[in-house]
Write a structure and sequence with these properties.
The protein has 401 residues and is an alpha/beta fold. The chain is built from 13 helices and 12 strands. The structure holds pyridoxal-5'-phosphate. Residues 71-73, 76, 103, 105, 150, 154, 179, 181-182, 202, 204-205, 213 line the site of pyridoxal-5'-phosphate.
């Protein structure tokens, strides 16, 4: 039988066995409503409280600062809209600053707010995906309610300097939110030390179940809920709690905190090997920051290749990867991230993202390397552009190094 290698962990991760086992009781016997007063409900409330402790611990927050949501997208929406719609916010605060490489959960929220009268500044990034701290500082005005910059990018893996960003925000009197959906469980985060005011997370990117996440919101910041109703989550997110999901999320984070020191270097060693071998392919480069990057993210551009064809052929070999250049979404443009780091269209079209997790092995990685080589050779053999290049056309200049 063909080998199956799941290497798209930035899209989602498989639920781990410990998470699955922790959830089972709450999908069967422990079905009580955590808000009920009788015994069947108290146990469930305890389980949600425990998960809240684990969720707070992994970022060094207080459990009372955690609001469970339906996932990363909702946490992002709650941070931005919840703050801007807050009755406590001074009337003039109608300006938001974010970056051009955010997840759509941030970008589309900002675009919506622009349609209803708010203004948004989208910060540029350099060719490794870092925002310019000076541009950030100059962009903050008295009207700026919030700066939202992601902790680590989901396509190219670049990690931002969160502490430096927070320092600038606070110096200039504004708040700092970070979408840390890709970062939680994949790097150390400390909201107190880094000065983060709000932080989004999602369970399914750290081996928990889908459909659950959380927003950390520092004590003292007042949000308007997006979902009004029975007043769960201290009135900030109504609706009967997703007990099993929250328990699974908590267990995933407990495991991550306890085992991160072990699995992060392991995952990084897999990724380093992959990067070393794949960049040996001629006209192939790593995208994103070569050093300050997520330990499991390897992202490349391979010239004279169509990213989508590459993904499909790798899939035929049982390998799950992704590309920022799919035209399946109805757009022929490569992803906003690849465009923002300044890649020429022709090159951005050949993007490949391989994202590894602790469940992957070195054999997986060797298999991926072997198949990428084979598939790239096959696609280039059929490519007239490649033929031209081999006949002496100079390579497109990618980055100044
Ligand atoms: C996956 C992801 C999200 C969305 O999270 P969901 O739980 O799928 O809603 C938001 N931001 C980033 C950076 C992500 O990678």
């Amino acid at each position: 039988m063909e080998r199956i290698v799941y290497s798209d962990n930035a899209a989602t991760t498989p639920i781990s066995k410990n998470v699955y086992e922790a959830m089972i009781p709450y999908l069967t016997d422990r079905y009580g409503n955590p808000s009920s007063l009788y015994a069947r409900g108290r146990e469930e409330k305890k389980a949600v409280d425990q998960a809240r402790i684990y969720t707070a611990e992994i970022i060094n927050a207080d459990p009372s600062e955690i609001i469970f949501t339906s996932g990363g997208s909702e946490a992002d929406n709650l941070a931005i809209k919840g703050l801007l719609f807050s009755r406590q916010l001074p009337k003039n605060k109608k300006h938001i600053i974010t970056s051009k490489i955010e997840h759509h959960a941030i970008l589309h929220t900002c675009e919506f707010l622009e349609r209803i009268g708010y203004t948004v500044t989208y910060l540029d990034v350099d060719n490794q995906g870092h925002i310019d701290l000076e541009q950030l500082e100059n962009a903050i005005t008295d009207d700026t309610a919030l700066v939202s910059v992601m902790a680590a990018n989901n396509e190219i893996g670049t990690i931002q300097d969160l502490k430096a960003i927070a320092d600038i925000c606070h110096k200039k009197g504004t708040l700092f939110h970070t979408d840390a959906v890709q970062a939680v469980g994949h790097m150390k985060l400390d909201v107190k030390e880094m000065g983060i005011d709000m932080l989004s997370m999602a369970s399914h990117k750290v081996r928990g179940p889908k459909g659950v996440g959380a927003l950390y919101c520092r004590k003292g910041i007042i949000l308007e809920p997006l979902i009004h109703g029975g007043g769960q989550e201290r009135g900030l997110r109504s609706g009967t709690e997703n007990v099993a999901g929250i328990v699974g999320f908590g267990e995933a984070l407990r495991y991550a905190k306890e085992n991160m020191d072990e699995y992060l270097p392991y995952v990084k060693s897999l990724t380093d090997h992959l990067i070393e071998e794949v960049t040996k392919i001629p006209y192939t480069q790593l995208t994103g920051d070569p050093v300050n990057r997520l330990p499991g993210t390897a992202s490349f551009v391979i010239e004279c290749i169509e990213g989508e064809s590459l993904i499909l052929l790798l899939d035929l070999n049982g390998i799950a990867t992704s590309t920022g250049s799919a035209c399946s979404t109805g757009s022929l443009d490569p992803s906003h991230v690849l465009m923002s780091i300044g890649l020429p269209h022709e090159i951005a079209h050949g993007s490949l993202r391989v994202t590894l997790g602790e469940q992957n092995t070195m054999e997986d990685v060797d298999y991926i390397i072997e198949k990428i080589n084979a598939v790239v050779t096959r696609l280039r053999d059929m490519s007239p552009v490649w033929e031209e290049k081999m006949n002496g056309q100079p390579s497109l200049k990618l980055f100044d190094k």
